[in-house]
Structures are given as structure tokens and as C-alpha cells.
Write a structure and sequence with these properties.
Length: 271
């Protein structure tokens, strides 16, 4: 049992689970827009997410030497290095325009982590900005990256999926912010810090309703697609309503981050 827990902790702390969520959303984009060569951007996103998330989580602590190189961290370092090599391999297989888009999100990640100016905080510590940067990066990498790589035209359906995906990621981050309320720096000015948990849940619930209403405007609306989105919105709503500061890391870092994977599985089974 202890071995299983260590494996699960490594799986979560090494950002493999969140990378699978990103991979699932990229593959979902491939399915929705009939992109046949989806694996190159999907695998680039998967390995790139492991590198980016581990860099964001452990860079500051490593630079201030507050993090000891225990066994798990050494394994995460090796995983990140191998993922960096793999991400580089798939990066060079992307189209020229897609590489430029990927580079933009790399800059956003660096801006999110490192202070670009002397005596200034990084973007992660800019009041109220973190949630928008993270949601924007997720939408850009999981939606626009594969679409641009495949040369697909930006249609109305693309914009609708953009809004839906941004809303879903935004609400998922709200759940994280509620759970992290007791450990987050007050200067971050996260949504729950500014308006309280109750109002945050009300805003998240309203956004999930918008998420569903946007489905009405999809060009080829079908009952299966609507039912799947109802399942995803309902699952997310339950996680949102039952979120609080006392929840364990598995509640958010495993179960909440499983929602995109769950959505993709539904799409593969019933789509």
C-alpha cells in the first residue's frame, strides 16, 4: 500500500497526471476537428507540460536552496530532463507557425515563473492575473496549437470551443484556488481571496451554465454531444460545490484534474 501511495505521489508531483489531461484535450481537438496527424502536437503538449509544470513548481524553491534533493525530487528531475528532450524532438516536427505559437507560450511560462525585471515579482505573483495566464496557456496549447499545426481555418465552431474550454479550465482553477486558500499568499488576490468562497462558487456555477448554453450555437448540435457536456459540467459543478480548504491534494491534483481525461473517454466511447 505504501508503494502504491509513493507511485501515486510521484505520478501527481511529477506532473504526469496534469500532462495526461492536456494530452486528452489535444486529442479531443483532433477528434472534434477531424485532425488525422494529431499525435505530434499531442505528444509535444504532453512532454512540454511535464517540463513546464515541474519548472514552475520547483524552480523557485531550487533557486533559493529550500528544496532538498530527496529521492522523489531526483526522480522528478530525471523525468523532467527526459521530457525536455522528448518535447524538443516533437517541437522540431511542428510547422513553422506552430513553433512560433509554442514559443509564445514558452515566454508566458517563463514570465509566470521568473521575474523579468530587477526587484519585480514574476507573473505568478501579480495580483489576480495567475488564473487568466494559466487558462490562456491551456486553451492555446490544447486547441490553437493543433489547429494551426494542421492548417485548419479558424471558424465559428473554433471560437465556440475556445470559449467553452476557457470557461471549463477557469472553473477548474477556481476549485484549486478554493482548496489552496489557506496556503496562498494574500497578495495573490485570487478570486476566493477577493470575493469569498461562496461567491466564487456562485460565479463558477454561472460559468458552467454559460458553458452549456454555448452548445446551442454549435453548427452541428447533437444530443450525444450535449449530454456529454452536461455530464462534464455536472461533474465539475459537484467538485466545485464540495471544494473547501480542508480537502486533500488528491481532491484537486488527481480527481479535479481527471475531468478533461473523463471528457475525452466519454467522447471516445459515445462520440
Amino acid at each position: 500500500m505504501q508503494i502504491l501511495k509513493r507511485f501515486l505521489d510521484f505520478y501527481i508531483n511529477g506532473s504526469i497526471h496534469v500532462a495526461l489531461s492536456v494530452y486528452a484535450l489535444v486529442c479531443m481537438t483532433g477528434y472534434l476537428f477531424e485532425i488525422t496527424l494529431i499525435q505530434i502536437p499531442a505528444l509535444f503538449a504532453f512532454f512540454g507540460t511535464i517540463v513546464a509544470y515541474n519548472f514552475v513548481k520547483y524552480d523557485a524553491l531550487a533557486r533559493t536552496q529550500k528544496l532538498q534533493m530527496r529521492t522523489e525530487l531526483k526522480a522528478i528531475t530525471i523525468l523532467s530532463l527526459l521530457s525536455f528532450i522528448a518535447a524538443g524532438y516533437y517541437f522540431f516536427q511542428l510547422s513553422k507557425t506552430t513553433k512560433m505559437i509554442a514559443f509564445v507560450f514558452l515566454i508566458l511560462t517563463l514570465l509566470y515563473t521568473l521575474p523579468f525585471f530587477p526587484n519585480q515579482k514574476n507573473a505568478r505573483n501579480w495580483a489576480g492575473v495567475k488564473i487568466y495566464i494559466v487558462a490562456l496557456c491551456w486553451v492555446g496549447v490544447t486547441l490553437f496549437l493543433p489547429i494551426i499545426h494542421s492548417g485548419i481555418s479558424i471558424t465559428t465552431d473554433v471560437y465556440l470551443v475556445t470559449f467553452q474550454r476557457f470557461i471549463l479550465i477557469f472553473v477548474l482553477i477556481l476549485i484549486f484556488e478554493i482548496i489552496d486558500l489557506k496556503v496562498d499568499d494574500p497578495n495573490l488576490k485570487t478570486v476566493p481571496q477577493q470575493i469569498g468562497v461562496k461567491r466564487t462558487k456562485m460565479i463558477g456555477s454561472g460559468l458552467l451554465l454559460v458553458f452549456l448554453l454555448l452548445e446551442i450555437f454549435v453548427a452541428h448540435l447533437c444530443a450525444k454531444s450535449l449530454l456529454m457536456k452536461v455530464c462534464i459540467a455536472g461533474s465539475t459543478l459537484l467538485f466545485l460545490l464540495f471544494s473547501n480548504e480542508k480537502r486533500s491534494q488528491y481532491y484537486s491534483s488527481f480527481w479535479v484534474e481527471s475531468i478533461p481525461i473523463f471528457w475525452f473517454v466519454l467522447l471516445m466511447v459515445f462520440g
